[in-house]
Amino acid sequence: MQRNPYLPLPMKLVKNFTETEDKLIHTFTFQFMSEEDEKSFPYMPGQFAEICVFGKGEAPFGIASSPTEPGFLKFSVAKVGVVSTALHLMEEGTMVGVRGPLGNYYPVEQMKGKDIVIIGGGFAFTTLRSLVNYMLKPEHRGDYGKITVIYGARNPGLLLYKDERDEWSKRSDIDLICTIDRPADGWTGKVGFIPTVTKEVAPSSNNSVAIICGPPVMIKFTMPELEACGFKPEQVIMSLENRMKCGIGMCGRCNVGNKYVCKDGPVFTRAELNQLPNEY
Amino acid sequence: MIIAKNALPGLLDNLIAEYEVYAPVKEGTYSLFKQIGKGSEAYFGFLNSKIPPKGILFPQSEKLFSYSGAQMEECIDNKKKVVFGLRPCDAQSLLLLDSVFKNDKYEDPYYMNRRANTLLVGMACSEPAPTCFCTSMGGGPFDSKGLDVMLTDTGDEYLVEAVSEKGRELMSKMGLSAAGEGQKAAAAKVRDAAVVVCKVNTDGLKGKLDANFYDTIWESFHEKCLGCGSCTYSCPTCHCFDIVDEAKDCNGCRVRNWDSCMFPLFTLHGSGHNPRTTGKERMRQRVMHKFKYFVDNFNATACVGCGRCIKNCPVNLDIREILADIQGSEARSDK
Ligand SMILES: Cc1cc2nc3c(=O)[nH]c(=O)nc-3n(C[C@H](O)[C@H](O)[C@H](O)COP(=O)(O)OP(=O)(O)OC[C@H]3O[C@@H](n4cnc5c(N)ncnc54)[C@H](O)[C@@H]3O)c2cc1C
Ligand code: FES
Q1: Do A157 and A220 belong together in one domain?
Q2: Among A212, B140, B169, B193, which residue carries the largest CB count within 10 Å?
Q3: Interface ipTM
Q4: Per the domain annotation, does A234 fall within a domain?
Q5: B185: exposed, middle or buried (C-beta count within 10 Å: 0-12, 13-18, 19+)?
Q6: Using CB atoms and an 8 Å cut-off, which of residues 255-314 of chain B contact chain A?
Q7: Quick check: CB of A161 below 6 Å from ligand 1?
């Protein structure tokens, strides 16, 4: 019989980093305890895992690291409740449990040979970080055409992954456009909401795939802009975040119509979602 | 084969020596499936138990593993069990749960392990209740699918028939005598007399549900629903569960408990957003899950027509009436 899917893998918290200025998002780096453990966790960008804080419980989070970064897993977690708060307060060196990888992933195979447009809002950038790092890896970069990243947050202090964004802006093989809602001191990037910026950037839909993650309002208003650029529902990829428990399609919590977001998703094309009721 | 009713407690005692035996036990005005320590505790006077026997395989509350920090220990139950006297509808429900707990990617070791170690001895329904509608849901009062052995009550005796190979083996340990022609004929007579009166029209139901998610018909079904969850807790096919930790400091255990899609917190996101905010969406989910989504995924309705949700509902909501209303409706969309 296969491994018990409810049992987490023990991992060690090696870094608890305060990611945003409001301190509400921390990025956690967990280290695999052995090579064998790492082998038992083969993942792809877009997948998620249940992080277990012993004594508190477990909660699902998108994997922010990329499989091209061996040895550890990264997650960026907003402080909202029991598990996330316990994580925020956790001292480096503490053991946690990680259960996964769960769910499907961004269709990196089908995306080959295409231009990629990534649109992220707020702290929903986590699995997009994984995807960008995966595509930028030298052995993968040639598989993809132009990479455009549009990333927005309310203010500069809420944009995640500053060091990496700085790296990406120096590279010529990725076009990074960051935007904030209102002007701020020292900000040299764009100012404006993501839908407006998407309209300005006007990415071509020709032989392209758009991947969009963010709060529901952002998605609602960005979709028409993508349509205006000629993106068909089959070319738009999204990731859902329904409330979850088991993560393996059994507890019945996360369904949208006849699909379980945990097992059949969380990654869906807009065309697939159009076939489902709007319960997300 | 045949066994006299007054010999049944002795037969159960023999089984208890080798297996954990679960049978209906009288609890005031109803019965419940419980593990019995003596054959005489079993009571077959009620048509069916108030709560389905699914809990023997999928307990209402069960420890998944215990831990002390990151040191974990699985709680796998490997004991051999016999469920004695379950009704055909409940046996059918286990076949449906099988497809839930073993999907295309994962296997639930807790359920699957118990399932593999459990023998099912069924009791045919000689007198179906007015709330029974199993024949509309692919079953019947004498339907033996999913069972290992089936008993038919012929008055002073039970006719005992093997359904599966495992059942045949179990019977060989029971010390039964062969059934005569007269006893077989008596059983056939009981079978012919057992009629499920209530019919639910399911022709075309799936087609209606495929199209009516946004229909205004969903506006009213939930109006008197209290959201108590009795329907889901007493349903033999409902399988929603929650996972929680019961712990002090870093020591404790991870537990799963039955949960219900009828509760508002069930789908509440950490952000406060809730995809199913009112009773309307939750009632629609329950009906859709049973009669559309499950059919889409497993080609069977997640309802076996046991009627428990009807009997246990404090405000007399009746799934048969809901289905009839849907069948009688024209799709009206308020999308
Ligand atoms: C696929 C997926 C990927 C995700 N990725 C990320 C990610 O990368 N980063 C991230 O930060 N988050 C992510 N999330 C969201 C994350 O899972 C939730 O924020 C997390 O589950 C919260 O867990 P918690 O224990 O901290 O909160 P909980 O203690 O469960 O509570 C969170 C909130 O839920 C409500 N609530 C829960 N239980 C009750 C109750 N009994 N009574 C009243 N209210 C209640 C309250 O509003 C409470 O504030 C993801 C979710 C999914 C499904
Ligand atoms: S989280 Fe349990 S079914 Fe999806």
Answers
A1: yes
A2: A212
A3: 0.91
A4: yes
A5: exposed
A6: 256, 259, 261, 266-271, 273, 275-276, 281, 285, 288-289, 292-293, 296-297
A7: no
